[in-house]
Amino acid sequence: MNKFFMAVITIMLTGQLVHAFDIVYPKKNDVIINSPSTFFIGSAKNKDNLTINGERVKIHSSGGFAHVVFLNEGHNEFVLTDGVDIKTYVINRPVKVLGGVYTPPKLIEYENRKQFLTSVDNAPLRNSPVDAGVNRMSHFEKDIPLTIDGEKSNFYRVVLGENKKAWISKTNVKAFEGYLNSPAIVRGYDCREDSEFFKFIFYLDKKTPYEIAEGEVLTLKFYNADNCEDNTYIFNFPYGEKIGSKKLIGYSGSYDGNNFVFKVRKFPSINSQHPLKNIKIAVDAGHGGTESGAIGCCGDKEKDINLAIAKFLERELQKRGAKVIMTRNNDSYVGLKERVDITNENDAMFLISIHGNALPDNADPNKHRGTSIYFYYNQAKPLAINILASMNKQLGTQNDNIRQGSLALVRNTTALSILIEVAYLINPEDNAMLIDSKFQKKCAKAIADGIEKFLLN
After folding, report:
1. Sign of dihedral through CA atoms 306, 309, 311, 317?
2. 3-state secondary structure at position 231
3. Do residues 197 and 265 make contact, with C-beta atoms less than 8 angstroms apart?
4. Which residues contact 187 (CB under 8 A, 6 or more apart)?
5. Does pLDDT of 3 surpass 80?
6. Which regions of 82-180 does DSSP assign to beta strands (E)?
């Protein structure tokens, strides 16, 4: 009799194992999601029987799935079952509270201008009072003097010459009562060059706000400058004539005391048979350590997939003669600023950041697939175009477009900096590719080919 019951229990346990399913998103039960819809992401061993509130879930051949559900305001209960296992999830969507009419923030203009100093390094100067989007004009070091003539919400309005205004976050400046900022005097500049850079040293009597703008020429502007039209000193660098290419390949500008150092990278001499020979390339595996990134349908972590692709890319680039700098070689946490610093300290010409994509709650993971590439500055756009075309062609991934986005890794100007979203971890089809080592290796080759094409065109 005992043997009979043991056999029954064994069959039951085996059945449960066969029909088991795992949920990776939502990450936990009884969550709050303020969206009209969300999705369940996970994997199931039985590809026929899984339902959510009675609706059949489509399972990919890899076992992964993504299933969209709609949320009513308040309490939502979802019963997931494969006929053997049953799991119940509760998702709460906040109830809208009708309130008063939204009043947009107003501009407060000062009767008398005020003097401030930047209080942090890398303080963004923006062309609009919004802490998001592609609106950054410059990134200032600490102790840059600013003349302020108003405020709006969390921003001060900055005076730039006679006819231009900009915005800076109140958290990035401090009041300075010592003196009212007098115009800066630009006394001239020297040009020095070596095999890699043009280097211009501008001599000023004090620091002043500045901007470097890309266009047909690379333009450096010093604002609030004495004896200049519109109180703006303008220096145009015709890089198409000077660096040996119409492609910008990196530049930087910063103060050294009161002097301003402006560097423009020369386009390298390219060996048509070995285009990547001696080219310095920083390869960045996104996330790492305690920062897992997105979780794929089958439970794979983005940080591990990123590192695997990055290592394949390292080997592929080295095979072609490139000098590769890895921002991380193992499962360790590296801060965003540190990744950029590693790139610039090693004087890399390219920064390639590898990631896997995900989506917000109100999207449908089954309708989003493919490869996308982010850039911020226009100098990196041609690189993004070439790499995306190469990846779509060689990998067969859908074209999810290039996008200009304000991401920390791509706001670096010293190297051409892009962030590649290889594919969507939360799309079952894409996820199955991302966890395949053969796909990862092909991905590395496609990226390397795209860099070569950029250099040769």
Report:
1. negative
2. helix
3. yes
4. 203, 204, 205
5. no
6. 86-93, 107-118, 123-126, 136-140, 145-152, 155-160, 164-169, 173-175
Task: For residue 99, count other CB atoms closer than 10 A to its CB.
Answer: 6
Q: Is 454:349 a contact under the CB 8 Å cutoff?
A: no
Q: Cis link prior to 238 (omega < 30° from 0)?
A: no
Average pLDDT over residues 146-160: 97
Residue 374 has a CB neighbour count (10 Å cut-off) of 22
Residues listed for the chain: 457
CA distances to 248, 273, 275, 314 from 453, in Å? 15, 12, 9, 18
Quick check: 406 and 136 in contact, CB under 8 A?
Answer: yes
Q: What span, in angstroms and rounded, lies between the C-alpha atoms of 246 and 263?
A: 17
Residue 40 near residue 31, CB atoms below 8 Å: no
Query: d(Cα 139, Cα 168) in Å, to the nearest integer?
Result: 10
pLDDT, position 9: 45
Lowest mean pLDDT among 159-168, 179-188, 343-352, 361-370: 179-188
- pLDDT, greater one: 12 or 350: 350
Q: Are strands 123-126 and 164-169 parallel, antiparallel or unpaired?
A: antiparallel
For residue 452, CA distances in Å to 83, 92, 236, 327, 348 come to 53, 50, 29, 21, 15
| CA angle (102 as vertex; 98, 108 as ends), nearest 5 | 155
Cα angle 189-193-196, degrees, rounded to a multiple of 5: 135
Please tell me the distance from the alpha carbon of residue 316 to that of residue 447, in angstroms, as a whole number: 9
Please answer whether residues 223 and 163 qualify as being in contact, where contact means their C-beta atoms are separated by less than 8 angstroms: no
Are residues 300 and 434 in contact, defined by beta-carbon separation less than 8 angstroms? yes
Nearest to 325 by CA among 353, 302, 303, 304: 353
Token duo for residue 290? 């305690």
Yes or no: say if 70 and 36 are a contact pair by the CB < 8 Å rule: yes
pTM for this one? Answer: 0.93
Reported as type and span, the H/E element at residue 237 is strand 232-237
d(CA 316, CA 341): 24
Phi, psi of 445, rounded to the nearest 5 degrees = -65, -45
